[in-house]
Amino acid sequence: MSDKVKIRSKALKFRAQLSSKERALKNERIIKRLESLPIFQKASHVLFYYSVNGEVDTLELIDRYTELKQLYLPAVQGKSHFQAVPIKKPIELQKGFQGIPEPIERPTGTHDREIELVITPGLAFDKKGNRIGMGKGFYDRYFQSDGKPFKIALAYEEQVLDSIPKDPYDECVDLIVTDQNIYQCNRPKNVRSYQKSGS
């Protein structure tokens, strides 16, 4: 069994064992930290993930900001890529890849260059921004697109490790927001410039 497989298994087990009370408290803290970041406040075009299977909850954020920003959700195309699909209320979804809800409507063009910020899921991270997802590579391939959006991962503190294995095709995130910390990974040089004073 590879190190990545072991880390995935451990992370999935941790998420499954969180009590509903602890999960709600952690989610609330993560949301507040994310909302304190000026880069989030200023971004007009944001790609979210639709949280499932114990991921840090994004549904409250999606509901809150759909009319304040142009939000997008991933819709898987084929076996290797996803398309960022713009959403608006009422959000119309259908079950997609692995049962994850996706927008029903699919635009003919691409919005990748418009997207400023990607709220990124993952099972494990390290403080350099290395990320382990579910192993399908959808986000790694998306991050290699021409748009080069800023990438913020949402995670529970226990998902941030000292070091995780990295393959050549793995893409890093720029910041990690947890219930206890905000980790600067690649950019900006000074994470404080992306936070409100006192947050």
Please write out the topology.
Blueprint: H1 3-17, H2 20-36, H3 38-42, E1 45-47, H4 59-65, E2 70-77, E3 81-87, E4 93-95, E5 101-103, E6 117-120, E7 124-126, E8 131-132, H5 138-143, E9 150-154, E10 160-161, E11 175-177, E12 182-184
Parallel strand pairs: 1-2, 1-6, 6-9, 7-10, 9-11
Antiparallel strand pairs: 2-3, 4-5, 7-8, 11-12
Keywords:
199 residues, alpha/beta, Rossmann fold, 7-stranded mixed beta sheet, 3-stranded mixed beta sheet, 5 helices, 12 strands, 25% helix, globular, disordered C terminus
User: Looking across the biggest beta sheet, what order are the strands in?
Assistant: 3-2-1-6-9-11-12
Describe the sheet with the most strands.
Answer: 7 strands, mixed
The count of domains is 1
Principal-axis shape equals globular
Terminal CA distance reads 41 Å
The percent range for strand residues is 15-25%
CATH architecture verdict:
3-Layer(aba) Sandwich
Would you report the number of β strands?
Answer: 12
Described by its quaternary structure, the protein is single chain
What's the mean pLDDT score?
Answer: 89
Based on secondary structure, the structural category is alpha/beta
What is the string of helix and strand elements?
Answer: HHHEHEEEEEEEHEEEE
Annotated CATH homologous superfamily: NagB/RpiA/CoA transferase-like
Count of helical stretches: 5
Rg over CA atoms: 16 Å
Quick one: CATH class? Alpha Beta
Low-confidence stretches: 189-199
The fold-level CATH name is Rossmann fold
Portion of residues within helices? 25-40%
